[in-house]
Design a protein that fits this description.
Blueprint: H1 24-41, H2 45-70, H3 80-92, E1 95-97, E2 101-102, E3 111-112, E4 118-122, E5 126-131, E6 137-142, E7 157-162, E8 169-174, E9 178-183, E10 192-195, E11 203-211, E12 214-223, E13 231-238, E14 242-250, E15 260-263, E16 269-273, E17 277-284, E18 291-298, E19 303-312, E20 330-338, E21 342-346, H4 349-356, E22 369-372, E23 378-382, E24 387-390, E25 395-399, E26 404-408, E27 415-420, E28 426-431, E29 435-440, E30 446-451, E31 484-486, E32 493-498, H5 502-506, E33 515-520, E34 525-531, E35 553-559, E36 565-572, H6 584-594, E37 596-604, E38 611-618, E39 629-634, E40 641-645, E41 649-657, E42 659-660, E43 663-664, E44 674-683, E45 704-710, E46 716-723, E47 729-733, E48 739-743, E49 753-757, E50 760-764, E51 767-772, E52 777-783, E53 798-802, E54 807-813, E55 818-824, E56 827-836, E57 840-846, E58 849-856, E59 860-866, H7 890-911, H8 929-936, H9 947-958
Length: 968
């Protein structure tokens, strides 16, 4: 450990040659501390015993943490035994981490229920059921993907299929060979689990085949072990325990893996695609004694997606007049989408393949019709007037006979998947901005829209665009932390920096994020999106050379304490692909000359929380070139901000009212206009300027890091800045700009974050240190595990304070997972410590509520809260958890209506009046589930309104307002 908990000044790792500057008030505080320590020595023996017990407890906690995090290498996680000990300690203090919510929709076709009333979306960690009528989340079922809590790449979800025999069940497959059967209406755990013989799976599909005169689900799986041939295997569960399997096809060469597999609903035809061609086969046999007759032929391009259609011979397209083989009564049409944008249509492909097998075939290869519109890979293609979608934000409808196209352009993101509803009345479209919509085929308008957190997320499977090697690079991992913030006045509003889509964010040399997404944690829906920098969402976003046009990245965001102002910093540099052919000197000069860094101030509307740009500062920190903005902080007591740049300067920004010729400038609504400017500039010691750092000849100057935070009253600014292992924290007076004090040896390595929780300052670098400023001593420290910079970027270590509960949370990154721990500044024993199976990309808290919210690289949200605190941050729940997913049976409704009619007749008979009710004026009240959820989920049970108030609120939803009478 690097810290200690006794009352001795300074830890042993302080450099004795370094001295901290002290002023007169500092000496006075030191004398007061000495007098207090002298008084402490004169306390009673009981007090000494309590102190020694407390120190022993802290020492044991530090020992546990040391064993926990020092006993393993850089890329390993916590041992189960040690983790359970810490978790039990945390649970005794009443802190918990919630189950994850949200996530990124996987590149898997959405699934309609048999009645098309529900839409089932597959995420990387769960399947989620949404209501088509109102877009509400009905149910969330976690997928048991992670095993043994290991820090390693998790298996990826392959696809999801609705059971053709039992429509209430879905089959979900995993790349490690596990295939689960879930009841999507009420299930939590899988009803059945199939495990392939090879423990691998590339794709699978489900058909209904008769077994002993009964229909059973038969799962066709594409498998391939390393150095083995690719196979297609059929699986079916016989009884409760016996799993029957049958190998139907093997590829010719080991390097051929069938990565796309489709079958007809009756299992008669199976079509697969490998890297060089297409495999088409017919399945025959009874009672799982299945046999496959397959044809394998090459295609001109790699196949990304395909779809089948079976029609009768009378309704199908025409076939050649002379056939060597008698054609079947069915016509199989196959359409494929390829990696270079082509679409090929094979009409009556089975008849053509059988004719080529004859003694004198007239053609040696299968002819196909070609359609080409997409610039890059065709990500999805489906029958139903031939709908296709690709890397463009456009849905294309093809008329097969004439090749005429109809477009639905300007969608929010590039199309990933398309599905046609069972009745053909709707299209379900999954976009790469983590949203999905259901579009009416008659009006081509969305009737359902589902949107999650649209932040950058790691790729769990290979993107289809990368199947063909292209110019430019696509990162499969999130490269930088994601800026995010909770509203200071409303902790249910989360603001996250996102891009125009997953493809746009992960392409190029820079991870772009020019858009601010506002997300409601109560309803777990996206509220709005607004561009904070220039974007190209639907235009042609590639250059003539094929390189993606990069967009700026938002690096910092911060709200003012009154939530009326938002400050952002965006950064853009020329893409590396544009300057690869230049000399190193010319390349560096061009990057410095063309780099763009902007500090922007936005006014937040009180009505709809929309943003309006008030001021833009070009290169807020610069020397002979624009310098990086290392930190942005908001004053918790006043509407002002501070920035720290790599030029060694701290600038404090404030606003003033605009005036023209002595008169206040106003907007069209009569509101005064403000502008922001720098009111104070403070240099950090001798580090001012970028050229003052000595560097060996032929080497670049040492890289510097920094972080800062205001004190709780805004009177001081704590700044950690310097080169590696500098360790200095500057305390700056925010009114005069004077550096009051310099604290030495406060951080080690590169500083990641500095937070203030009065009277403590907490620094996170290669270790965690809690320093008591008033007592002038190190409270305690936690040594973090060593990281391999190539696999675990240190930038994903996070630190955040919660001023409501007087706690702070720390995130330690590993290769594929993260560790979250919550501490009190007075005690090194963690209140809560958990391992998250994903890398945390953002950690935020709010001044209006206690607790923390973490965002991971799977676009999931986790809340870390104190159990006893009812005002803590909470995430929305599915309707199933709110008990609002069950619908009232029609019989029950009719029965209640009959009772009401009988009661009405009795009342009328008693009054002696016979009134006829006009059927045209009586209407059935329709109450949406969302309204009921807002009513009953507004507060916990003990804080709910009285029963009488709830009664009137419910009846208010059921009653209808009278129509306004019109004058004759």
């Amino acid at each position: 450990m690097v810290g200690k908990t006794d009352k001795k000044p300074r830890a042993g790792d302080v450099d004795p040659n370094k001295k901290r500057k002290r002023d007169a008030s500092d000496k006075q505080r030191s004398s007061d501390i000495k007098r207090n320590r002298k008084d402490e020595k004169q306390t009673t023996p009981k007090s000494d015993k309590r102190t020694s017990d407390a120190n022993e407890l802290k020492g044991n906690a530090l020992k546990v943490l040391s064993e926990l995090q020092n006993g393993e290498t850089a890329n390993t996680t916590i041992k189960t035994r040690d983790q359970s000990e810490l978790q039990s300690a945390g649970e005794s203090n009443g802190w918990k981490i919630s189950s994850p919510l949200g996530g990124r929709i996987a590149d898997i076709d959405p699934v309609f229920s048999s009645d098309a009333k529900n839409l089932i979306l597959t995420y990387h960690t769960s399947i989620q059921v949404y209501s088509v009528a109102d877009s509400l989340l009905v149910r969330r079922i976690l997928l048991p993907i992670a095993k043994d809590n290991k820090d390693g790449p998790a298996a990826s979800v392959l696809t999801t299929h609705l059971s053709p025999v039992e429509p209430d069940f879905v089959w979900v497959g995993c790349s490690d060979g596990r295939i689960w059967k879930f009841n999507w209406r009420r299930g939590i755990k899988p009803e059945d689990t199939l495990i392939t013989k090879s423990h691998t799976a590339l794709d699978f599909c489900v058909s209904a085949i008769k077994v002993n005169e009964e229909l059973h689900d038969v799962v066709f799986v594409s498998e391939k072990k390393q150095n083995d041939e690719g196979t297609i295997v059929a699986y079916c569960r016989k009884g409760a325990s016996h799993l029957a399997s049958q190998i139907l096809f093997k590829t010719v060469r080991p390097d051929q893996a069938i990565h796309v597999l489709r079958a007809t609903a009756d299992g008669k035809y199976v079509v697969g695609a490998h890297s060089e061609g297409l495999v088409v086969g017919t399945i025959t046999g009874k009672d799982l004694e299945l046999e496959g007759d397959f044809f394998n032929f090459d295609t001109s391009d790699i196949i990304c997606t395909l779809d089948l259609r079976v029609t009768s011979r009378q309704q199908g397209l025409s076939t050649p007049k002379k056939q060597t083989v008698k054609p079947s009564s069915e016509v199989l049409d196959v359409i494929i989408g390829c990696g270079r944008g082509s679409i090929f249509l094979y009409n009556d492909i089975m008849t053509k393949l059988q004719s080529m097998r004859g003694p004198k075939p007239k053609q040696k290869e299968v002819q196909a019709r070609k359609f080409h519109w997409h610039r890059r890979a065709v990500r999805s293609v489906k029958w139903s007037r031939d709908v296709s979608g690709g890397s463009e934000n456009t849905l294309v409808l093809w008329q097969v006979d004439t090749a005429i196209t109809t477009y639905l352009p300007h969608l929010p993101g590039a199309i990933e998947n398309i599905v046609v509803s069972p009745s053909g009345a709707h299209y379900a479209v999954h976009l790469d901005d983590n949203s999905a919509m259901v579009i009416s085929t008659s009006e081509m308008k969305p009737v359902t829209y589902v949107s999650g957190i649209q932040s950058a997320a790691r790729y769990f499977a290979q993107p289809k665009d990368t199947l063909v090697k292209r110019v430019g690079e696509v990162s499969k991992e999130v490269r930088h932390p994601i800026p995010a913030a909770l509203s200071p006045l409303d902790a249910t509003k989360l603001h996250v920096c996102v891009g125009t889509g997953q493809q746009a964010m992960m392409s190029g040399s820079q991870q772009s994020a020019p858009i601010l997404q506002s997300f409601d944690l109560d309803s777990f829906t996206s509220v709005s999106k607004q561009a904070l920098a220039r974007t190209q969402p639907t235009d042609v976003n590639i250059t003539a050379q094929g390189n993606p046009i990069s967009e700026p990245a938002i690096t910092h965001i911060a709200f003012s304490s009154d939530a009326r102002w938002l400050a952002t910093v965006d950064d853009w540099s020329p893409p590396t692909g544009d300057i690869d052919n230049m000399s190193p000197d010319a390349k560096e000069h061009l990057v410095q000359e063309r780099r763009e860094i902007y500090l922007k101030f936005w006014s937040v509307s009180a009505e709809d929380e929309s943003l309006a740009l008030t001021s833009r500062i070009n290169s807020p920190h610069s020397t002979s070139r624009p310098e990086t903005v290392l930190a942005l902080a908001a004053d918790p007591a006043a509407p002002r901000f501070a920035t720290l740049g790599d030029d060694g300067l701290v600038r404090i920004w404030h606003f003033k009212t605009r005036q023209t010729d002595g008169l206040t400038s106003k907007d069209t609504k009569g509101q005064s206009l403000q502008s922001w400017s720098c009111g104070l500039t403070v240099g950090m010691g001798s580090h001012v300027g970028a050229d003052v750092i000595p560097a060996p000849e032929g080497h670049k100057a040492a890289k510097r890091s920094g972080s800062m935070s205001f004190s709780e009253d805004g009177s001081s600014l704590f700044v950690a800045f310097g080169s590696r292992d500098d360790g200095t924290v500057y305390i700056v007076d925010t009114h005069t700009g004077e550096t009051r004090m310099m604290l030495e040896n406060m951080w080690k390595g590169d500083v990641r974050s500095l937070q203030v929780l009065s009277p403590y300052i907490v620094t996170l670098s290669n270790d965690l240190r809690v320093y008591d400023v008033v007592a002038d001593e190190l409270q305690y420290g936690v040594k973090l595990p060593k990281r391999d910079a190539s696999s675990v970027p240190a930038a994903f270590a996070h630190l955040q304070v919660d001023k409501k509960s007087r706690t702070f949370a720390m995130v330690v990154p590993f290769t594929y997972s993260s560790q979250i721990a919550v501490f009190k500044p007075e005690d090194p024993q963690p209140l809560c410590i958990e391992t998250v199976p994903h890398r945390i990309t953002s950690l935020v808290s709010s001044a209006s509520s206690s607790g923390f919210v973490a965002l991971d690289d799977a676009a999931q949200l986790w809340s870390v809260t104190e159990v006893s605190d009812q005002s803590a941050i909470s995430l929305a729940k599915p309707l199933e958890d709110l008990r609002l997913d069950t619908t009232v049976e029609d019989d029950a409704i009719n029965g209640d209506a009959d009772e009401d009619d009988q009661a009405s007749e009795i009342d009328f008979a008693t009054d002696g009046d016979n009134m006829e009710l006009d059927d045209d004026e009586t209407h059935t009240a329709i109450v949406s589930r969302q309204k009921l959820a807002e009513l009953f989920d507004a507060a916990p049970a003990f804080a709910m309104p009285s029963i009488e108030d709830m009664f009137y609120k419910v009846t208010g939803l059921l009653t209808t307002k009278p129509l306004a009478s019109t004058a004759a």
